[in-house]
Amino acid sequence: MNDLLAGCVAALLVMLSAPLGAAGPAPSAVATAEAQPLQVRILPKSTTLQWGQQLVLMASVTDANGGNIPGPISYAWSETTNLLDLSPVFLSGPVFQLTSSATVGLIPGPYNFTVVAKAGDQQGRASITITVPPRPAPKVPPKLTLLCDPANRTIKPGQPLTLTAELQPADGGVSSAVISYAWSVTPGLREALPAGPSLKLGSAQTQGMKPGQAYAFTLKVKVGPFEVPASCSVTVAPPEPLLQPNRQKVPVPIPRPGVKL
Question: Is there a contact between 152 and 232 (Cβ–Cβ < 8 Å)?
Fold first, then answer.
């Protein structure tokens, strides 16, 4: 009995002295490297764009730890309010820019710009909202001029006609805040005239205008607290006279006595 007990104790000591996990192979650890998102910022942080001011947005990209990106980076800018036509703007670089001539036409309100940066299998994005405040009201009324095409202000029936408004600020400041355009013509036309800075009449519209008649076009532009008028007269040329074919006189024979014609 004592021998059996001694054998069991010896076997137990052998098992305890073996290293933990020696009964089978240790499981291998598999590490999966996930692509870390890029850190993207848009500079400058100013969120107000004065009317007519140049807009410059610059994307700054780092890795997740704030370090530099060694490889090439691609950029894609967008404006999510769909209030801008960005087709002619270069949108694939780190800098997004709108010139002052482009920002003059911006409607007051918020514009949300987003840039997506990619480097290899890493990607990041950032957004910024730029607010355009209401346009400043002019202190004096601007000068309004109507430009006519054709320049001699004479058209033939069926010839297209274009009138364009040109506003020049009288106070030396930025172009004034236009609120509305209203066109009128005397004598009137069969179709109503559209509103806008340019009036275009196609061949079908001028075909019905009376030849030899002078038409007085008037534009009233509401600019801030002012209403500025301008007029120009366009004459429809009379039709050219039809050319009569040349007719030669045929001699008439004179009857003679005793001669039958």
Answer: no
Integer Cα distance of 80 and 114 in angstroms = 7
With cut-offs at 50, 70 and 90, classify the pLDDT of residue 161. very high
Q: Determine the pLDDT at residue 177.
A: 67
- Non-local CB neighbours of 162 within 8 Å, separated by 6+ positions: 148, 149, 198, 199, 200, 201
pLDDT score at 86: 62
Sorted by sequence, the CB contacts under 8 Å of residue 26 that are 6+ apart come out as none
Q: Is 260 inside a domain boundary?
A: no
Q: Which residue has the tokens 């009201």?
A: 137
Residues contacting residue 128 through CB under 8 Å, at least 6 positions apart: 42, 45, 47, 57, 112, 113
Instruction: Tell whether 126 and 202 lie within a shared domain.
Output: no
Contact of 171 with 140, CB cutoff 8 Å:
yes
Q: Residue 147 sits in which domain range?
A: 143-236
Which tokens in the block code for residue 238? 């009379």
Peptide bond connecting 25 to the previous residue in cis, omega within 30 degrees of 0: no
How high is the mean pLDDT of the chain?
Answer: 77
The model's pTM is 0.45
Please report how many Cα atoms fall inside a 13 Å half-sphere around the Cα of residue 144, on the Cβ side: 23
